[in-house]
Design a protein that fits this description.
Blueprint lengths: L9 H31 L5 H24 L20 H25 L2 H22 L9 H4 L22
Helix pairs in contact: 1-2, 1-3, 3-4
Length: about 170
Amino acid sequence: MSKATSTPTSAETSAQSTALQAALAAEHAAVYGYGVVGGRIGEERRTEARAAYDAHRARRDALVREVRDLGAEPVAASAAYALPFAVADSAAAVRLAAELEDRVAGVYSDLVRAAGEKRRAEAAGALREAAVRAVRWRGGSVPFPGLAERNGKNSATSGIPASPGAASATPTA
């Protein structure tokens, strides 16, 4: 029987649970961050910001269900998150939106590595969606979306957990 069709070991289930919790924490932070983006974004991009906010809320809700299905208690959202920089105008809101998507992509990259076949496909889809939104916000792409070590970003300072082992860290938006 191939590994893809075999029953996951407890270590694999634990790694998936940890990565799911990290993705959930990142989605909580992204929802918060898009609340800030929505308050500062110009009228011409407000629909795009609302669509991203809705997409992150839907992913967050799906992740809550997945974590519960694994028998774990979903990580709760924080009351507030520290922003990586001041968001005083529409240009800063656009930069924040791109940063949020980059951070979420990084966490989904970790979930792709930790997940089984079905969940891996879903995580890859979420990674792709975040990367596409980041490109739209930024106006350009990075070489390896979701892989900070490959695109010149330092995930250790990003605030949002970037690896399954960092799921208990307090995320920042």
